Amino acid sequence: MSTRDVRYGAVSGVGFSFLVSVLTLALEALANIFYPTPLALSPFWSLYKGYWVSFLLTLALYAILIIFTRPYKSEYMMGYSNMLKSTQRVVIFTIVSLAFLSILFDAYVGPLRTKIGIFIVVNLISGIIGGYVGVRLS
Q1: SS3 22
Q2: Mapping DSSP to helix (H, G, I), strand (E, B) and coil, where does residue 93 land?
Q3: pLDDT per residue over 58-115, tens digit each?
Q4: How large is the C-alpha radius of gyration of the chain?
Q5: What span, in angstroms and rounded, lies between the C-alpha atoms of 12 and 128?
Q6: Which of 119, 137, 129 is nearest to 12 (CA)?
Q7: What's the predicted TM-score (pTM) here?
Q8: Residue 98, Cα to own-chain centre: how many angstroms?
């Protein structure tokens, strides 16, 4: 493992973390049209507060994103699966760290500017953690 791999993993983890957060909030905003619930980024916070629709939507989105990064059978047969395993590990660890750290975003009830700052910091930290751990375990 080189430092270049760790940097690439951290950068891809940060980008993926922002993508997951934006997709989660967009999906919940869309569901809010049909079933009004507060927006929650963390599935643990949704479970704690009893927002079942948000909990199920978030878990479904996480499962779809993890399945999407799984290598196909042809990639296993051609030997590309070893290269793609680190990508799947980065995705899994980024999602897990985002699920835990986004509790900070959901629990904060202060001004909007601070909440946006917490959103950015949570995504940066979870992406760096997910990228670093995903590459280190490869």
Answers
A1: helix
A2: helix
A3: 999 999 999 888 766 655 656 666 667 788 889 999 999 999 999 999 999 989 999 9
A4: 16
A5: 9
A6: 129
A7: 0.88
A8: 5
